[in-house]
Description:
Layout: H1 2-15, H2 17-45, E1 57-66, E2 69-73, H3 79-87, E3 91-97, E4 104-107, E5 110-113, E6 116-119, H4 123-126, E7 131-133, E8 145-149, H5 150-157, H6 161-164, E9 170-173, E10 177-185, E11 198-201, H7 202-208, E12 221-226, H8 232-239, H9 242-246, E13 252-258, E14 267-269, E15 272-275, H10 278-305, H11 311-319, H12 324-361, H13 372-397, H14 402-407, H15 414-450, E16 460-464, H16 467-471, H17 473-481, E17 486-492, E18 502-503, E19 507-508, E20 519-524, H18 528-532, E21 536-539, E22 552-556, H19 557-563, E23 572-575, E24 578-586, E25 601-605, E26 612-617, H20 622-636, E27 645-646, H21 647-653, H22 656-690, H23 692-700, H24 705-739, H25 750-777, H26 780-784
Parallel strand pairs: 6-11, 8-10, 20-25, 22-24
Antiparallel strand pairs: 1-2, 1-12, 1-13, 3-12, 4-5, 4-9, 7-10, 8-11, 9-10, 14-15, 16-26, 16-27, 17-26, 18-20, 19-23, 21-24, 22-25, 23-24
Helix pairs in contact: 1-12, 2-10, 2-12, 2-22, 10-13, 10-15, 10-22, 12-13, 15-22, 15-24, 15-25, 22-25, 24-25
Amino acid sequence: MLKSYLTVALRALRRQKGYAFLNVLGLSVGLACSFFILLWVVNEVGFDRFHEHGDRLYRVMRHASFGDNTYTWSAVPKPLAETMETDYPEVEHATLLSWQESPLLTLGDESFREEGYYAGPAFFEMFSFPLLEGDPATVLADPTSVAISEAAAARIFGPDWRTSGVIGRTLTVDHRKDFQVSGVFADIPDNSSLQLDFTLPIADFIERNDWVEHWGNSGLELYVELKEGASAAELDPKIANVMNEHHEQAHATLFLQPFEDMRLYSDYKDGQLVGGRIEYVRIFVIVAAFLLLIAAINFMNLATARSGQRAKEIGVRKAIGAGKGSLARQFLVESVLLALVAFVLALLFVAVLLPAFSELTGVDLAVGEIDPRFLLAGGGIALVVGLLAGSYPALYLSSFSPVAVLRGTFRQGPGAARLRKGLVVFQFALSTLLIVGTLTVYLQMDYIRHKNLGLDRENIVSMVFEGAAREQYEAFRQELLQRPGIQAVTTSSQNPLDVGNSSTDPTWDGKDDEDDTLFYVINANYDFVETMKMELAAGRAISRDFASDSVGYLINERAAEAMGMEGPVGQNLSFWEHEGQIIGVVKDFHMGALYTSIEPTIIRLDPSDGWLLYVRTAPGQTPEALASLEAVYGQFNPGYPFEYKFLDADYEKMYRGEMVMGVLAAIFAGIAIFIACLGLFGLAAFTAEQRRKEVGVRKVLGASVPGLVALLSKDFALLVVAAFVVASPVAYVLMSRWLDGFAYRVDLGPVIFVVAGLVALVVALATVSVHALRAATADPVKSLRYE
């Protein structure tokens, strides 16, 4: 029986090659896009899911309330780690982790810049980063030990490191202290939130940064592993006020965040979890479903539209005894056969385009690494799509009356036409929704790129400042300023576009005792304002010409507002036990991503804390400036690699996720329109064929070609307009919600919707006009000669 179904199906498809081509192409493109999205989604939801005790791993977080704002941070004080381990029996292990560091590891005369963390002794016991050499329980126990990845071992000790041996070998860190290699761990998988090529003992970090010992200073992250059967929900209330008990100004509520959720659920607003990357996962799952729906709709539309051409076949088969069930199975076999052919073609598309997709998304994927379960899931999706897409045509075609068909009195009812029109409206509504989304993302990203940030991020080179160059900063600066292409030089403790240091310590005359406003802090060197080209609203910048500026402060306009000062210049300000005066007010600048509002910010002079070097280059002289910087840096810091970044590149990197999503949205919106137009192309051909005699009569009676094209295109244009009306309010609500995630955003005006509607309409009319023009210019004699 199945063989008979397949034989009939193949014959039918051969007779209708154009119809089969449109269906296979639409389905294959839709399936391929869905597979790409599925690969990306599987990668996203698979992040951090490989740890053996992953369901028991948590990061300790805190909500901190200052003034009218509640912030959520992962930074906690160092003493909390000991408290968690000793006072709470639910905790199996606790380990402190520094922020990602990039020190120099030196072997002999060669230095290597590696990225990693200072970590607590239990790090390798908690996290499943397999040690190829070394013991997880002791690898970080010695304060002079270091564990490195196998890739770092190959870079530092050579490709034969396994045979030559590395355990016990000495590496010098930042030219300051020797550490012995105590372990080598397997390279970290790409789907890990923690990316590292080394781990150093947290004891060394604490020894050099004794400020972390105070409960009021939060500069480390803390991860805990709960004992089997322990509940985070029950532990949260117990630890909530621990910081407040040890430091009355902490204003903190501690809680545990599941480690496996860190990647996807990371956005908090006013102390509430509001999402994160999971939003993009959900959006693209919906996009994948949309693309499959549009492709399936094409199939249903074309199948029902072409049903008249198979009416006699169905009538004859019914007349000789074929049942409705048998006919339905026949058409389902045809549908599934097309879907499976489309599935194979979709896999070819994926294999060819996977490298480009990997480069675009930053997800390292290769054809050989695709899980076989993914292929099974893809085949299952294709089968389901084939069954769903063929279900209505199968039931519809198998219900034809054989008597009416064989008498020639069969006519498709208005229900079929209404269904086709409804499906076209649905297709183009989805396409319009994707176009609006793409335009909104593009405009917001363009706004971010060109937003006046309150400083000039162009032509600024930044690099880690270390070694003799940092120790002899003035000589280094003077030498650099004499070289070609260099305009200004300064150092600071913070990237001015991503300030992470904050305090409630500042006090001023008239400050309310209950005022706990949080101020962000930049420890800067001289020439900071000039190098960044910040604008002054009042006063002046910190200058070498005034000895008192050593305890002088710059504040932004938001800080002046928070302090209630109308004329802040000259007023007293005490900060971290340093009494001084406000000498200038800089205009507000974006000291964080545009997701958040500008916060009160203080710039204070502290050259000793300037571990970041910023060099402004002359416009158009970047190559000369880089050559100058490299020469002077090498002169002062022999043995240190010359590594630099551009401030504007760092800024755009903050929004890489949104930019990638914007590109993907544009691609998928274009593909959605393409698939919808494939179906429209087939329906236009069917409509033109149905109205062939009508067109012939109208031409004989004097109708013009443009008039006939307009007549045949009008119905489709009305459907696209209806789709626009349906999609616009939905798109407005969805994109408004997305834009609400930015404190600074574009307005969602009517222009975006008008452009989206016009794009959909023009593309649809261009598709339909091919058949409309062909029908309108055909010889009417051919269509009327038998009348």
